[in-house]
Design brief:
By secondary structure, the protein is of the alpha+beta class. It is built from 2 helices and 6 strands; from the N terminus they run βββββαβα. The chain has a 6-stranded mixed β-sheet with strand order 1-2-3-6-4-5, covered by helices on one side. Strand 1 and strand 2 form a beta hairpin. Helix 1 packs parallel to helix 2.
Length: 131
């Protein structure tokens, strides 16, 4: 595996996630988040870092999202893409596909937590390859 690729797993059982990240040059990042019982592509988010409109000294991001009909992956794709773009300064694409049948509120909360953890782990990896 090339050092500009990173693959890892988080969670277990029904709430297991697989995450693949690839640094594209010095300004781009692609992240694929798949999980649950049937991996698929549910949504794609593209986030562009920019100075915050409220405070130009802080980073923010402008994000566009495409979602497939009947899929709720857009929330995950948007939040992870925005966080990664804001924190890394890279144009970030997140492809998300997470599905489990009859997900409980607890499982949904767990997925949200795991996705936030995934974002932190990708940021740590990016810092390590540019150390």
């Amino acid at each position: 595996m090339h050092h500009h690729d990173y693959w890892f797993e988080l969670g277990s059982g029904r709430t297991r996630l697989e995450i693949y990240a690839k640094a594209i040059g010095t300004h781009g990042l692609v992240v694929i988040i798949e999980g649950g019982e049937c991996p698929h592509i549910g949504a794609v988010a593209l986030a562009q870092p920019r100075p915050s409109l409220r405070d130009p000294h802080r980073n923010s991001a402008t994000t566009s999202v495409l979602a497939l009909l009947g899929h709720k992956d857009d929330e995950v794709a948007r939040s992870v893409a925005e966080e990664l773009a804001r924190a890394s300064g890279r144009v970030t694409t997140v492809v998300a596909g997470i599905h489990i049948d009859q997900a409980s509120q607890e499982e949904i909360a767990q997925f949200r937590q795991l996705c936030a953890q995934a974002a932190r782990q990708v940021l740590d990896w990016l810092a390590s390859i540019h150390a």
